[in-house]
Amino acid sequence: MLRIEDTDRERSTAANVEQIIDALRWLELDWDEGPISQNERAPRHRERLEELLASGAAYRDTTTGAEVQEWRRQNPGRGYRGLALEGAAAEGAAVRLRVPDEGVTVVPDAIRGEISFENSLQDDPVIARADGSVLYNFAVAVDDADMAITDVIRGDDHLSNTPRQLLVLAALGEPAPRYAHLPLLHGPDGKKLSKRHGAASVQELREEGYLPAAVRNYLALLGWGAEDDETILSTEELVRRFSIDRVGRAAAIFDERKLRWLNGRYMRTEPLDAYEAQLAAHLERNDPAAAAAFAAAAPAARREACEIVRDKAQTVAEVWPLVAFLFTEPDIEDVDEKVWRKVMKPGAGSLLRKAATVIADAEPFDAATLEAGLRELIDAEGVSANRVLQPVRVAITGTNVSPGIFESLVALGRERSIARLDRAIGRLGDALPGDDSDPG
Fold it and tell me: pLDDT over 70 for what percent of the chain?
């Protein structure tokens, strides 16, 4: 059941609610009922509130927060207890729940064991504001009872709320669900997870190019592990294996580097159709011009681009920079000057001309034939592979990072590859005269 707990109207904007639903849909986490707005259940909350007022389990009180603090200062070691107001005196009063003066409220936590809270130390909590709107802890307890919620699994920052909800349920005569409080996420430095550790929302992970299946897999293993410590598990397998008793008490460490590694594993096994769809959706959200260029290409070209890059890219966001040269025409004059001078060393022009001849003569025009021909050229010239292959890479892609150079040449095609080599040779002739000297 998807329940939107939106009693705090300032924080529960339509945009915030949509962000929750958008995140769940992208993660492919489905629900059976809902979404149900807690705020829309206000009439039911008021109905149950009146039950407690009528039974005496709750009372009206105008004491302010500052006055409660002063009361506690004068009564050390005791929780605040107010006096019920009646008639005109109760106008503009909030509603508090009566907490027993003796005994303990026990939270039977599935992860931490039984946790006891001394009733005498707890204040009578406010459960409804003066305007009649109820607070979170009351609304949650009522909704859990009405919706027959069996298990409440949430972050341990909610642990202090649980005894209040148990007291509400007891006052209403309702059974309590089972509780389990998960450790919070920390960064690799051991501090509470924040923006400095990387993405701060599911949507940011999506825009950085992570796959939903990889994110599900990684998040499921934070603070929990399968019996055999396997890392890559399908969602179906995670569901089958999950048991709350294997959740640890220590804070779980969210390390984006590990998520990145896991995502890379998923990228390499993603079916090509799904791979292409992920790339297209990413470009539509982030780069409309690139999306149009990709969509305009022939289906075979799109598929081949995904094929040659799948072993290199670790996130969807990395794919387009690696394959853009197949769908757009890089301007050789705009190649980064540092990259150009690092790669186009003396003799590069001569080597590029000879490489162009090898590419022009390759039959059949496939990766194996191109590799054999270019490596034969490398051996004949007595130079390192980088002295030939890196200038070819920069010439055809406009950058020094790309998928496999032989596969890239095949995907680009013979004519386009030779044309780009010719443009690079032309720039060498214009910008670096004399580079056609001894190739070294």
Answer: 96
For residues 76 and 111, membership in a common domain is answered with: yes
Burial of 77 (0-12, 13-18, 19+ CB in 10 A): exposed
Same domain for 51 and 157, yes or no, is: yes
The total of other beta-carbon atoms located within 10 Å of residue 9's CB is: 9
The angle, 0 to 180 degrees and rounded to 10, between the axes of the packed helices 367-381 and 385-397 is 130
Instruction: Look over the chain and give the mean of its residue pLDDT values, rounded to a whole number.
Output: 92
Among 295, 310, 326, the domain boundary falls at 326
Is 229 part of a structural domain of the chain? yes
Residues involved in catalysis: 195
Same domain, 320 and 232: no
Sheet-wide strand order for 58-61: 58-61, 94-97, 126-128
Domain count, the chain: 4
Band (pLDDT 50/70/90 cuts) for residue 11 is: confident
Integer angstrom CA distances of residue 228 from 15, 224, 249, 259, 337: 41, 12, 19, 20, 51
In a domain, 392, yes or no: yes
Place 200 in a pLDDT band, splitting at 50, 70 and 90. low
pLDDT tens, 377-432? 999 999 999 999 999 999 999 999 999 999 999 999 999 999 999 999 999 884 44
Q: State mean pLDDT over 296-325.
A: 96
Residue 208 in 3-state DSSP? coil
The reply to whether 125 falls in a domain is yes
Q: 237 and 276, same structural domain?
A: no
Average pLDDT, integer, range 91-116: 94
* Same domain for 148 and 90: yes
Instruction: Report the CATH number that the domain containing residue 413 is assigned in CATH.
Output: 1.10.10.350
Whether the CB-CB separation of 51 and 28 falls below 8 Å is answered with no
Q: Read out DSSP for 380-421?
A: HHT--HHHHHHHHHHHHHSSS--S-HHHHHHHH-HHHHHHHH
Are the beta carbons of 320 and 283 closer than 8 angstroms? Answer: yes
**Exposure class string for 375-399: b at 16+ Cβ within 10 A, else e:** eebbeebebeeebbbbbbbbbbbbb
Question: What distance in Å separates the CA atoms of residue 41 and residue 36, rounded to the nearest whole number?
Answer: 9
Tell me what pLDDT residue 224 has.
86
Full residue range of the structural domain in which residue 341 is found: 332-431
